[in-house]
Amino acid sequence: MSANKESWGSRVGLILAMAGNAVGLGNFLRFPVQAVQNGGGAFIIPYLVCFLVMGIPLLWIEWSMGRFGGRFGNHSTPYIVDTMGKHRLWKYIGVFGIWTNIAVAAYYCYLESWTLSYVFHSILGTFNGLDQEGVASFFDTYVSIGDSTLGIPYEAVVFYLLCLLLNTWILSKGLSGGVERVAKIGMPLLIVFGMFLAYKGFTIKAGEAGASFDSAVGLNFLWTPDYTQLWSPTVWLAAAGQIFFTLSVGMGTIHCYASYVRSKDDIALNAMSAGWMNEFVEVVLGASILIPISIGYLGIDRVTELVQQGGLGLAFKTLPFLFTQWGEVLGAIAGVMWFGLLFFAGITSSLAMGTPWIGFLQDEFNWRRKPAAWSFGLIVLILGMPTVLFFHYGVFDEYDYWAGTVSLVVFALVETILFAWVFGMDRGWREINSGADIKVPDIYKYIIKFVTPVLLLWVFIGSLVTPKGGDWGKALSGDWVLDDSSIINKIKNSSLKRQLAEATDPAVIEQLQET
Ligand code: PHE
Ligand code: NA
Fold this sequence. Notes:
- This protein is an all-alpha fold.
- Helices cover 75% and strands 0% of the residues.
- The chain has 22 helices and no strands.
- The model has no long low-confidence stretch (mean pLDDT 90).
- The chain binds phenylalanine and sodium ion.
- The site of sodium ion has 8 residues, from helix 2 and helix 13.
């Protein structure tokens, strides 16, 4: 219980803050890449099904958990779940809801700081006159901290600090005075920038401004359904993972934001507004920029090849070069819009990652907002340093996998069980519907109770022990080999990698490489 009496300023502000939480770098960088990696048109059907039977239920669950906990003066996941399940264990499980945010923030803020720097470089015209190689090597130099040829020594570090300071400062201004205000400015601008770039993505013509293909080539690639892949569990797992990441469920940010909603206010409709806004930005805007523009210039094969190397390359090495093909002025505008929209998407999400920790310190230790915000900045700085300094060694992906993927699924499963089976579905259903401005379809009562947990369990087990190539048929008939993408193999491989990095004796290294 605390003296923390903060709340949202207005309904619009709440929805925009929640939408800002959800809409993030995942919408513009992760979604298109996942779609391409999983066969373009094959991805979208599982993706939409996962949204309907896991995403939407989890939104309602988390919003109502948050509002419920907030009624008792709790604004962080451990104490919110503690008010719902009476066993002491729940509180400790709830620590996930603080920890995951801090761990994700540690790599997310670094990526966010690149976008800030690239806005400036677009304004300065840094990319003008460079060829594709030049733009790509600009990025490589940027992330290899030591050798700075960009004029600002340690530029990546400088922008990282700047970005953390900005986050901390906004967080210290409070919910309605900081977070909500940024969302009210950032979200509309993001939509305007996104619409402009999506328009460009839609109107690319072969032979104009250096493009080789019509925009239809890229769009067809993404949107022509491919039913052959429909039953591949790997595609389903990727789709579920993307839904969690993009909606920010299984993290604790929604609990925290919703705990500041007044107890008589609607959550059923608000949750849908924010959730569908995220889907619009992801499926309509997110799918119409990075991939169609890149394919317009490079063709499907080259883009698929680049995407296999990760989505960040396309966004930071390829697009800034393609924009220069549109002429100096339009190129600069497009660059500012692209990196500007990424920055707004990023910051409204990283602010959300900070609030659970701040709410926790305020509630339990009576900290004031300002020192609590600074402590968040400091923790992220310390935890984030490895991603900054060792970016090339895959530290970034390691963080994303454990904090940004695995723990979301685990926590979502646990909280669904808590909500539907421990707290009880009848009480849960009353919570969702109390103060509701829409009638929630009754079928969701059964979906939340049965379908969501079973699917979550399937996703979890499926990613724990994925058989080689995702071929369950073969695996179940006795030919059982774990795929490298299974969690169990990841645990094995990442500790192997660590030992390899530490080993100096050539005989030991050779032995490790063989295993
Ligand atoms: N949903 C955000 C995105 O799509 C990421 C995020 C995860 C934000 C967790 C907050 C909490 O980028
Ligand atoms: Na998102």
